[in-house]
Automatic annotation (TrEMBL):
Chain segments carrying region Disordered: 1-23
Gene source species: Perca fluviatilis
Keyword Ubl conjugation attached: no
Gene Ontology CC entries for this record: endoplasmic reticulum membrane
Coiled coil: none
TM regions (residue ranges): 32-51
Protein's name according to its UniProt entry: EF-hand domain-containing protein
Ranges of Basic and acidic residues composition bias in the record: 1-14
GO annotation terms (biological process): calcium ion homeostasis; skeletal muscle fiber development
Amino acid sequence: MAADVDKKEDDSKHSQQNGHQSPSYGSWICRGIWTLLIVGAVPLLAFWIKYYQDAQLLKRHEESVRTLGAEGLFLFSSLDTDHDLYLSPEEFKPIAEKLTGITPPVDFEEEVTHDPNGETLTLEAKMQPLRLDSMTKSKDGFLGVSHSSLSGLRSWKSPAVPSSSFSASQFRAFLPPKNKVAVGDTWWVIPSELNIFTGYLPNNRYHPPSPKGKEVLIHSLLSMFHPRPFIKSRFAPQGAVACIRASNDFYFDIVFRIHAEFQLNDVPDFPFWFTPGKFTGNIVLSKDASHVRHFHLYVPNDRSLNVDMEWLYGASESSNMEVDIGYLPQLELQSTGPSTPSIIMDEEGNIIDSRDGGGEPIQFVFEDIHWTSEMSRQEATRRLEVTFYPFQKVSYLPFSEAFDRAAAENKLVHSILLWGALDDQSC
């Protein structure tokens, strides 16, 4: 038996010395080759699938252009939000509403359950339309301007909803998160989703997406001005930021800033984007959002140009876009007074007074608010600016003061000349 084993070992050594490999070694080589082929084939297969999909998409695009024409395809694309070249019933709804004139009630997603017996706040909207003579470039027949291009702008002369009532609890959207309750703290009410890497949102849109969560209140407020507000602007920074200006045991005074825009045109006209430099204001509300003492939202008018306007005059976004800026004298919402309850109950839950449509309003006397901690409105506004634009951490000085500071600190002067403003959306 031992002799047989020795003989097999000698035969194996002899085989290896003559350059022959064992069968298991050969099968390992075969498996390795097949693995390499499979690994190499995967990206090649993915390339051909992508090539085929792109070719099919191009073919469908060419067929669409032949069928609809360039402008028809543009309108189709503005409705085709998922870019699958098919219109779902939801995507076709704006056209159906346009053709029938019937707009069903919108069921927005709310994050606040309203108390039917809670307090209500009445807001009034005021507006002075854009001064057309402040548009420095745009006249009829010049620079892609036609009567239809500016039709939405020219017809927007007053608020869509002059007065509206809101539940005080809706303004809970402005309350700070639990870790941001100190004076001077800032937070994102509506976070920005755009940056230099994500680019910007498309221009060929007419109807804003349905708002969700805290966007619902902002959408409702801005809808008092115009029926088509876009809460998330096309360009960064988008969203809304708030800062606690003052606080005591029961109330916050919160300063806020919102970057949003309006779509003034509707089909068949090409889109016209109206982008105020910013919306800002403040709200004084109880920490449980059951009572709103004061609310004010407005577009600042202290600069000679405070609105950016961009519109298309053809189906191509890249080559048929025109831009101008102008001056908007007034666009603001103001509370008519503190929020008030519709009924007053005694300690046993019995109604002792109520407010109805035909009776006299309930008379209330509100106590003065004394702040235990506060900062200036100017400082709170600066913190909002730094949150939106980090470059605002640097001190910017008027031209006449810059050279004195430079001489005192032995530094150079960096001068910036702008047509518009660098720290808002009007430029």
